[in-house]
Amino acid sequence: MKSPGRCLSALTIGGSDSAGGAGIQADIKTFQHFDVHGASVITCVTAQNSLGVTHVEPLSCHSVAQQIEAVCSDLVIPALKTGMLYSSELVEAVADALRLFEGSTVVDPVMVSRAGSRLLSGDAVAKYQQLLFPLATLLTPNLHEAALLTGREINGKVDVEHAAQCLLERGPQAVLIKGGGLPELAGQDFFCSGDAPGVWRSQPAITTPHTHGTGCTLSAAITAALVLGRPLADAVIQAKIYVNQALLQAVAFGHGPGCVGHRIEPLSP
């Protein structure tokens, strides 16, 4: 419940993108669109631009835990999201810090980029499943991540549906697998929960090379909608609409593929 004099906040826990297209930067832009105050916990600092990631510097587990404590002890946070956690130690530190969090938790398991690059080290995949999945209100892997987490090849809709059910059985309350990694699934994501049969959520496919930040933006938009009190299924729909609008305004900012645009008229209440 909103306290007198304090606005509702959304929290993002993840990595900083020095080029501003994804990560914490994309999340804060998305929260602002939904007219939700955005708070952030930085887990790692990346050196990257439109051509790729050249360096990742993780912060200490103590620093990350202290950031979470500082924010959660003061702000009113109905929902948060996790993004790039990078290492098994940071996954464990974040899970420990969130164990008593009572709001909704959107876990975006940033493990593999849309281009297929690994963004997670060593045994962190096992830690994700052991520690973060049971805390997740919603898990939002892309196709590469869903394949890595389940050990299954994903080549079409049936594979996606089987992978989602497999992930659902490992602890999260709901799973949203993003289908953008396959041309035939462009604009289509599969949503399932323990409360209802799985369903495909579709938006018109947008053809653009400038897709950097789409996954971060989607999970951030879902988080913001949850902060505003939307039911989870409705939050997913609203977030997909926002991402499509952002893709229509995607922009090149360097020599490589650009990012989704956030210059969109605010959504109606």
What structural class is derived from the secondary structure elements? alpha/beta
Strand content: 15-25%
How would you characterize the largest beta sheet?
6 strands, mixed
Low-confidence stretches: none
Quaternary state of this entry equals single chain
| E-strand count | 9
Strand ordering within the main sheet = 3-2-1-4-5-6
- How is the CATH topology named? UDP-N-acetylmuramoyl-L-alanine:D-glutamate ligase
Q: How many distinct domains? A: 1
Number of helices: 8
CATH architecture: 3-Layer(aba) Sandwich
Report mean pLDDT, rounded to a whole number. 90
Q: Kindly provide the name of the CATH class.
A: Alpha Beta
Q: Compute the CA-based radius of gyration.
A: 17 Å
CATH homologous superfamily heading: Ribokinase
Order of helices and strands: EHEEHEHEHEHHEEEHH
Helical content band:
25-40%
**Dominant shape:** globular
Termini separation (Å)? Answer: 18 Å
